[in-house]
Write a structure and sequence with these properties.
Chain lengths: 163, 565
């Protein structure tokens, strides 16, 4: 089963390698990982998407908590949360497909952020499924490059996660 | 008070109560060694950085204090890695300080540069690269705190050379503030109450105890729990000295080379009470048939140990000292239940006694060839009660666990988790530094001994009276045993062809050595060695193809023991 985990960590030397090394050393999967500082400059927040059964997820959560640099671990999977991902897509466009590409951009509420005679570069944010959706539709035109940020998540409602 | 970085390091160590360091100098720590030159801290110069770490590890295992090591950058640092991994697997508190190239050179492939923080990240509890002199004192404080609290472990501090010479005002912090590190010590009372109820409802309970008992210092509480309930006690390799092995409730070691009765009792029990143990594969054998009929209570200070390898019915996170005291209190108040429980336990005890009688821990004695088990039994008889025994790794280690009946806490120092050959001699060195008056014996094989035999020099230099026992079969015995049993006697690279004169080797270093080749020489040689001051090496020529039995073959359940060759 796929799980989305938020990890608050000390924003310090080597912390990313502690977390990624934990996953590789113990044979856990990482589907995606994104990290950036929070409002407090000494704290970073990681969003990790991983897969595993209940036993594996319990170990992942415990092992993350065991790291001295980890302040808090929240598994959002059973909670109500919003996931958003950013993707930048460079798509090849010929004269006969340029209009269709723009229509797709419009339908998905994406943006064209760079144009050349032969390409559009598209920016889109949304749930990972939405990004998969636009990629499917653009694929026949010829996608030259895709950069995805991996999802970041936040819980619904008034309560926030903090250290 | 303005001090240099190296002075701040040494002053901080003193604030932590450190009076002994094991180490090896080099370019990147030369400033620290200059300040050590007229420091009150006692420094032991080993002949290899790996040995310095094992020595500090042995020191820590027998005292419960934090072992401290200094090594230089690059090769000095990488030489410490096996020692650090050994300590990490067995949860031994240590602080390792490595020199590092000056901060502006880090990442430039400078002379003797190694990314030791990167290398040791998976085998330390935590590590630090000190990039600013302002952080040094606090870093040392945090390192010691992390090393000795919660589930203990080694912590590395990488200290660049320019930080060692920089100056800063020195004040040692009183407290530690680590947002992400708050170990749970106090066991949950409701869980403990449930545990008491589960115990009293059981008819065939077994205590399965591990090295956590020694680490927590909960030896008396464990003994009290066992005697209060009369539940038999199976011990892991790491816990052989945690519970007196001559106690009527002692089942001995369980697992791959465990006793018949310990493995049968665990297989047949209806309640397994795991305390400070971690369901290692050498203990469980085939995991799905381990304690199949039992409910499991698991007490450990480290939450990750619980439900890692097996499902658990009742987890209790906490310090064993705290949890066992509360559990004993709870049981103590249930006098009536306890009386009935003990009565009902008689059938189970009788059952266990039949297993003990059927296959006691035994070997085939001989008049013509020295049996290793006989050497170990003779050592037990002739050594002091509080003698500290270290081992290397292999057959001799298992025979020691099986036949040396340990009676006192922290007297058996052995590399359990990592299984590091070459551990025993330097660990004995460290133990002897900690306890100059006690008997310290390294029980070794001829293979393992040669992995750190250079430490004979250290023993002689400091006149540390460690007694070394080599059970010499000219084989890498444990691997040979596997090759005999599972690889059709194809002894690939396990025959140590060159017969080494270990006595001459000892003498070359300025130590004393004795050979024993006949059975009747065993006792004489041990007596002579014990009566000789200073380090002494005893080389016993043992029966070459003796096997460690019982043995649970890899992949088998622990009741599927091979009992005879």
């Amino acid at each position: 089963m796929r799980h989305t985990i938020s990890v608050l960590v000390e924003n310090e030397f080597g912390v990313l390698s502690r977390v990624s090394g934990l996953f590789s050393g113990r044979g856990f999967n990482i589907e995606s990982l994104s990290v950036a500082p929070t409002l407090e400059p000494n704290t970073s927040r990681m969003t990790i998407v991983t897969t595993g059964d209940d036993r594996v997820l319990e170990q992942i959560t415990k092992q993350l908590n065991k790291l001295i640099s980890t302040i808090k671990v929240v598994d959002f999977t059973s909670k109500d949360f919003i996931a958003r991902e950013l993707a930048l897509i460079k798509v090849a466009t010929e004269a006969d497909t340029r209009a269709e590409a723009l229509r797709i951009v419009d339908i998905f509420r994406a943006k064209v952020i760079d144009v050349t005679p032969k390409t559009y570069t598209i920016e889109i944010t949304g749930a990972p499924a939405k990004i998969n959706g636009i990629l499917e539709l653009l694929r026949p035109m010829g996608i030259k490059e895709v950069v995805r940020s991996g999802p970041v998540v936040i819980g619904r409602g008034a309560k926030g996660v903090s250290g | 008070m303005n001090l240099t970085g190296s002075q701040i390091l040494l002053e901080s160590l003193k604030c932590e109560g450190v009076d002994t360091i094991f180490g090896y100098p080099g370019g990147a720590v030369i400033n620290i060694y200059d300040d050590l030159y007229d420091s009150s801290i006692h420094h032991i110069l080993t002949r290899h950085e790996q040995a310095a770490v094992h020595a500090a590890d042995g020191y820590a295992r027998c005292t419960g204090r934090v072992g401290v090591v200094i090594a230089t950058s690059g090769p000095g640092a990488t030489n410490t890695v096996t020692g650090i991994a050994t300590a990490y697997m067995d949860s031994i508190p240590m602080v390792i300080v490595t020199g590092q190239v000056p901060t502006p050179l880090i990442g430039n492939d400078a002379f003797q540069e190694a990314d030791i923080c990167g290398i040791t990240r998976p085998c330390t509890k935590h590590n630090f690269l000190v990039k600013n002199i302002r952080d040094l004192a606090r870093t040392v404080k945090e390192a010691f705190y992390i090393a000795r609290t919660g589930r203990p472990g080694p912590v590395l501090i990488d200290l660049p050379k320019d930080i060692q010479v920089a100056t800063h005002d020195f004040t040692y912090p009183d407290t530690v503030e680590l947002r992400g590190y708050k170990p749970t010590y106090s066991g949950n009372l409701r869980q403990i109450e449930k545990a008491a109820e589960m115990i009293l409802a059981a008819r065939r309970p077994v205590l399965y105890v591990g090295g956590g008992i020694n680490l927590s210092g909960a030896n008396a509480e464990l003994l009290a729990l066992a005697e209060l309930t009369r539940i038999p006690v199976a011990t892991t390799l790491m816990a052989m000295s945690a519970f007196p092995q001559r106690h009527p409730l002692a089942l001995g070691m369980l697992g791959m080379h465990g006793t018949f009765c310990a493995n049968m009792a665990v297989t047949e029990c209806d309640l397994l009470i795991a305390i400070g143990s971690r369901f290692d594969d050498r203990v469980t054998g085939r995991i799905d048939s381990f304690a199949e009929k039992a409910k499991i209570i698991h007490v450990d200070v480290d939450p990750t140990s619980i439900k890692k390898n097996v499902a658990v019915d009742l987890p209790i996170v906490g310090d064993l000292l705290d949890v066992l005291s509360k559990l004993n209190d709870s049981l103590d108040q249930k006098t009536e239940h306890l009386g009935v429980f003990r009565e009902q336990l008689r059938a189970w005890q009788a059952h266990i006694a039949t297993w003990q009688e059927r296959h006691p821990m035994a070997y085939q004695p001989s008049d013509t060839v020295i049996k290793p088990q006989y050497v170990i039994q003779t050592l037990r008889e002739l050594s002091q009660d509080d003698a500290i025994i270290t081992t290397e790794v292999g057959q001799h280690q298992m025979w020691t666990a099986q036949f040396f009946s340990f009676t006192q806490p922290r007297t058996f120092l052995t590399s359990g988790g990592l299984g590091t050959m070459g551990f025993g001699l330097p660990a004995a060195l460290g133990a002897q530094v900690a306890f100059p008056e006690r008997q310290v014996i390294d029980i070794s094989g001829d293979g393992s001994f040669q992995m750190n035999s250079q430490e004979l020099a250290t023993l002689v230099q400091y006149q540390l009276p460690v007694k070394i026992v080599i059970l010499n079969n000219n084989y890498l015995g444990m691997v040979r045993q596997w090759q005999q049993m599972f690889f059709n006697k194809r002894y690939s690279q396990t025959v140590m062809e060159l017969p080494i004169d270990f006595v001459k080797l000892a003498e070359a270093y300025g130590a004393v050595g004795f050979n024993a080749t006949q059975v009747d020489e065993v006792e004489t040689v041990i007596r002579k060695a014990f009566a000789t001051p200073g380090p002494v090496l005893m080389n016993f020529k043992i029966s070459r193809e003796e096997n460690v039995l019982p043995m649970v073959p890899a992949g088998k359940a622990i009741h599927e023991m091979v009992l005879a060759s």
